[in-house]
Amino acid sequence: METINAVKTALEIYHDVIMIEANADAFEKLRNADIDIVFNIAENENGISREAQIPAIMDMLKIPYTGSDPLTLAICLDKSRTKEILSYYGIKTPKFLLIQSIDDLQNFSIDFPVFVKPVAEGSSKGIFNSSYVSNFNELEYESKKYLTEYNQPCLVEEYLPGREFTVAMLGNGNEAQVLPIIELNFEDLPDNMHPIYSFEAKWILDTKENPMDIYTCPAKIDEELRTKINELAHKSYNILRCKDWSRLDVRLDKYGEPNIIEINPLPGILPDPKDNSCFPKAARSAGIEYDELINRVLYYGAKRHNLL
């Protein structure tokens, strides 16, 4: 609710705002409301299509909204589909195998160590220190656990040993703006934890009361690497047809080349600067405060829908 109220407060600087919850009553409320445009941050509860459900309703009702369309939202939540599309276009992404049943491990041919995670979760759900596996027995155990506990396929991915970054983008097409790159620092993690931004690191160790020095923004990188990351993010953003805003996670492989890990077209936007929320942090580094960030996203969406 803190984020929802912060978005409402920001929009109310210039606009009249009503709030509609993304539940079973949303269709009738949207159909009967006098709405010019929806600022969409709806995730819903069920299925891999859960982030696409409200935008699909708005498409049916011909209501403009901010952010990506249902197809992009559903594809980007499904990490395997995202990687298939990126691979088709020659975008660097770690080698992977989709595990829909434990029998799929018979086709396993990726070098260890590897990384295992649910195919369609966000906010580091299902990404634990134990997701890093170094042999086949561990892989089989973790895969069975994910298939059972998350009731969805899991993704086995080549582990990339290099530095990790996250890239926030605003706008559309070739005019989309890449905000200052954030680097994730893993030096402060306990010695028994792998250098990954796991659920433990994100939600247990890194708190508002005891924040970790987990981010550097802008990232301390040379111009060559900055250009590579920016170009990779821009290409991936447009290939997946992201709209108005998105956050892309990038990690370097053993050769120092940036790879796309995943794309988040509905990025987290915790409003309190004490929270390590990447998109607002990158925006502040670019001189864009929270209220302005929210209204810029609305502007891009309204312009795209020819409302300006």
List low-pLDDT spans: none
Radius of gyration, in angstroms, nearest whole number = 19 Å
- How far from one another are the termini? 30 Å
Strand content is 5-15%
The SSE order reads HHHHHEEEHEEEEHEHEEHH
The portion of residues assigned to helices is: 25-40%
Going by CATH, the homologous superfamily of the largest domain would be: ATP-grasp fold, B domain
The CATH topology name of the largest domain reads: D-amino Acid Aminotransferase, Chain A, domain 1
Helix count equals 10
Q: What's the number of structural domains?
A: 3
- The number of strands is 10
CATH class of the largest domain: Alpha Beta
Largest sheet descriptor: 6 strands, antiparallel
| CATH architectural type of the largest domain | 2-Layer Sandwich
Structural class call reads alpha+beta
Mean of residue pLDDT?
92
